[in-house]
Write a structure and sequence with these properties.
With 159 residues, the protein is an alpha/beta fold. It contains two helices and eight strands, in the order βαββββαβββ.
């Protein structure tokens, strides 16, 4: 382990995500630009077609700066589409430490507001918007319950 410039150990590397939400887009290059501009996703890999097919995105990986990411591509249509998802049918909850700041950025970039920032009854600060393809995005501070956390007992069916 190498010490950082202030003599402390660098932070451990985060594990690579093993769950990748995926979506399709009618205009994948425009959606990629929008997701970067509005939300701050980072373009990690974009595989495009060539020649007349240059506007087709065969595969894109966009990383979320706070961890995780998504994959997307151009809708292909037809019976031979290996991943026949309908553009605009995607929805995701994304954790962010700065929901109010991100909300303002998303609105400036043209996101359609579904719900302005609000405080939830479970202690999160959230907001919800749609992207240019109609996908729903909810951002908030709730990171989920830790693994192995005690869960309240559920009532048995029929009781």
């Amino acid at each position: 382990m190498t010490a950082g410039t202030n003599g402390t150990a660098p932070p451990p590397m985060a594990p690579h995500p093993t769950v990748w939400p995926t979506l399709r887009a009618h205009d994948a290059p425009a959606l990629i630009r929008f997701l970067a501009d509005a939300f701050g996703f980072e373009e990690t890999l974009v595989v495009r077609g060539e020649g007349a097919d240059a506007d087709t995105v065969h595969h894109a990986q966009l990383d979320w700066p706070e961890g995780g990411g998504i994959m997307l591509g151009s809708v292909r249509g037809g019976d031979d589409d290996p991943w026949p998802l309908e553009p605009g049918s995607f929805g995701a909850y994304v954790v962010t430490a700065r929901p109010d700041e991100l909300f303002a950025r998303a609105v400036r970039a043209g996101a359609r507001v579904l719900r302005e920032p609000y405080d939830t009854d479970h202690g999160s600060r959230d907001f919800a918007v749609r992207d240019i393809e109609g996908n729903s995005w909810q951002f908030g501070t709730y990171r989920g319950e830790p693994r192995g956390a005690a869960r309240p007992a559920r009532a048995a069916a029929g009781s």
